[in-house]
Write a structure and sequence with these properties.
148 residues; alpha/beta; 2,3-Dihydroxybiphenyl 1,2-Dioxygenase, domain 1; 4-stranded mixed sheet; 3 helices
Length: 148
Protein backbone atom coordinates (compact mmCIF):
# COMPACT_ATOMS: atom_id res chain seq x y z
CA UNK A 1 0.00 0.00 0.00
CA UNK A 2 1.30 3.46 -0.91
CA UNK A 3 2.10 5.88 1.90
CA UNK A 4 -0.07 8.96 2.35
CA UNK A 5 1.88 12.20 2.61
CA UNK A 6 1.60 15.96 2.63
CA UNK A 7 4.01 18.50 1.18
CA UNK A 8 5.27 21.15 3.58
CA UNK A 9 6.67 24.53 2.59
CA UNK A 10 8.66 26.46 5.20
CA UNK A 11 7.78 30.12 4.77
CA UNK A 12 7.43 33.53 6.40
CA UNK A 13 3.82 34.19 5.36
CA UNK A 14 1.71 30.99 5.27
CA UNK A 15 -1.49 32.78 4.27
CA UNK A 16 0.08 34.42 1.21
CA UNK A 17 1.82 31.20 0.17
CA UNK A 18 -1.36 29.14 0.63
CA UNK A 19 -3.37 31.57 -1.49
CA UNK A 20 -0.71 31.68 -4.22
CA UNK A 21 -0.33 27.90 -4.45
CA UNK A 22 -4.09 27.27 -4.27
CA UNK A 23 -4.49 29.46 -7.37
CA UNK A 24 -1.42 27.99 -9.08
CA UNK A 25 -2.51 24.38 -8.57
CA UNK A 26 -6.29 24.69 -8.74
CA UNK A 27 -6.48 23.63 -5.07
CA UNK A 28 -8.76 25.14 -2.45
CA UNK A 29 -7.97 26.66 0.91
CA UNK A 30 -8.50 24.01 3.58
CA UNK A 31 -11.27 24.68 6.08
CA UNK A 32 -10.23 24.64 9.75
CA UNK A 33 -11.21 21.59 11.81
CA UNK A 34 -14.82 21.41 13.01
CA UNK A 35 -15.49 23.65 15.98
CA UNK A 36 -12.84 26.26 15.09
CA UNK A 37 -13.36 29.58 13.32
CA UNK A 38 -9.87 29.58 11.82
CA UNK A 39 -6.60 27.65 11.74
CA UNK A 40 -4.91 29.88 14.31
CA UNK A 41 -7.65 29.06 16.85
CA UNK A 42 -7.09 25.36 16.18
CA UNK A 43 -3.30 25.62 16.51
CA UNK A 44 -3.67 27.57 19.78
CA UNK A 45 -5.93 24.79 21.12
CA UNK A 46 -3.20 22.20 20.60
CA UNK A 47 -0.52 24.35 22.23
CA UNK A 48 1.31 25.97 19.33
CA UNK A 49 3.07 29.13 20.62
CA UNK A 50 1.70 32.45 19.41
CA UNK A 51 4.98 33.39 17.65
CA UNK A 52 4.63 30.31 15.42
CA UNK A 53 1.14 31.14 14.22
CA UNK A 54 0.74 32.32 10.65
CA UNK A 55 -2.34 34.49 11.10
CA UNK A 56 -4.52 33.09 8.36
CA UNK A 57 -4.90 30.04 6.18
CA UNK A 58 -1.93 27.68 6.25
CA UNK A 59 -3.00 24.67 4.18
CA UNK A 60 -4.57 23.79 0.86
CA UNK A 61 -6.18 20.63 -0.48
CA UNK A 62 -7.02 19.13 -3.84
CA UNK A 63 -10.76 19.68 -4.37
CA UNK A 64 -10.96 16.19 -5.94
CA UNK A 65 -9.21 14.61 -2.96
CA UNK A 66 -6.52 12.90 -5.04
CA UNK A 67 -3.50 15.19 -4.65
CA UNK A 68 -1.56 15.67 -1.43
CA UNK A 69 -2.48 18.19 1.23
CA UNK A 70 0.01 21.07 1.27
CA UNK A 71 0.87 22.80 4.54
CA UNK A 72 2.68 26.13 4.80
CA UNK A 73 4.68 26.17 8.04
CA UNK A 74 5.75 29.52 9.45
CA UNK A 75 9.49 29.65 10.15
CA UNK A 76 11.65 32.57 11.24
CA UNK A 77 14.62 31.99 8.93
CA UNK A 78 14.49 33.01 5.28
CA UNK A 79 15.25 30.85 2.27
CA UNK A 80 19.03 30.67 1.85
CA UNK A 81 19.83 28.17 -0.93
CA UNK A 82 18.28 26.50 -3.95
CA UNK A 83 15.47 24.03 -3.25
CA UNK A 84 16.46 20.35 -3.26
CA UNK A 85 12.95 19.48 -4.46
CA UNK A 86 10.62 21.54 -6.60
CA UNK A 87 7.19 21.44 -8.20
CA UNK A 88 6.71 20.99 -11.96
CA UNK A 89 3.40 22.40 -13.18
CA UNK A 90 2.28 20.70 -16.39
CA UNK A 91 0.50 23.37 -18.40
CA UNK A 92 0.71 22.37 -22.07
CA UNK A 93 -1.65 19.42 -22.47
CA UNK A 94 1.17 17.01 -23.22
CA UNK A 95 3.26 15.88 -26.14
CA UNK A 96 0.26 15.04 -28.32
CA UNK A 97 0.28 18.75 -29.20
CA UNK A 98 2.86 20.51 -31.41
CA UNK A 99 5.73 22.21 -29.60
CA UNK A 100 4.54 25.69 -30.63
CA UNK A 101 1.12 25.03 -29.07
CA UNK A 102 2.76 23.76 -25.91
CA UNK A 103 5.00 26.84 -25.74
CA UNK A 104 1.97 29.14 -26.05
CA UNK A 105 0.18 27.29 -23.26
CA UNK A 106 3.23 27.32 -20.98
CA UNK A 107 3.76 31.04 -21.62
CA UNK A 108 0.09 31.78 -20.89
CA UNK A 109 0.33 29.91 -17.58
CA UNK A 110 3.57 31.75 -16.74
CA UNK A 111 1.83 35.09 -17.35
CA UNK A 112 -1.06 34.04 -15.08
CA UNK A 113 1.35 33.02 -12.32
CA UNK A 114 3.37 36.24 -12.61
CA UNK A 115 0.11 38.16 -12.11
CA UNK A 116 -0.41 36.13 -8.90
CA UNK A 117 3.05 37.09 -7.56
CA UNK A 118 5.50 34.58 -9.09
CA UNK A 119 8.75 35.62 -10.76
CA UNK A 120 9.93 34.33 -14.13
CA UNK A 121 13.57 33.28 -13.79
CA UNK A 122 14.60 31.75 -17.14
CA UNK A 123 13.39 29.79 -20.14
CA UNK A 124 14.51 26.17 -20.39
CA UNK A 125 14.72 25.22 -24.07
CA UNK A 126 17.24 24.13 -26.68
CA UNK A 127 16.95 24.26 -30.47
CA UNK A 128 16.03 20.86 -31.87
CA UNK A 129 14.87 19.47 -28.52
CA UNK A 130 11.16 18.73 -28.08
CA UNK A 131 10.97 20.39 -24.66
CA UNK A 132 10.00 23.81 -23.36
CA UNK A 133 9.75 24.99 -19.77
CA UNK A 134 10.06 28.14 -17.72
CA UNK A 135 11.85 28.25 -14.36
CA UNK A 136 10.04 30.43 -11.86
CA UNK A 137 9.92 31.26 -8.17
CA UNK A 138 6.92 31.72 -5.90
CA UNK A 139 6.39 34.89 -3.81
CA UNK A 140 8.96 33.70 -1.22
CA UNK A 141 11.58 32.56 -3.71
CA UNK A 142 10.89 28.80 -3.86
CA UNK A 143 11.78 27.47 -7.30
CA UNK A 144 9.27 25.69 -9.53
CA UNK A 145 8.94 25.02 -13.26
CA UNK A 146 6.07 25.36 -15.69
CA UNK A 147 6.65 22.56 -18.20
CA UNK A 148 5.18 21.10 -21.36
Amino acid sequence: MAARFQLTFDCADPDRQARFWAEALGYRLEDPPAGFDDWDAYWRSVGVPEEELGVGVDSIVDPDGTGPRIWFQKVSEGKAVKNRIHVDLHASGGRDFPLETRKERVDAEVARLVALGATRRRTLTEPGVDHYAVAMSDPEGNEFDVVN
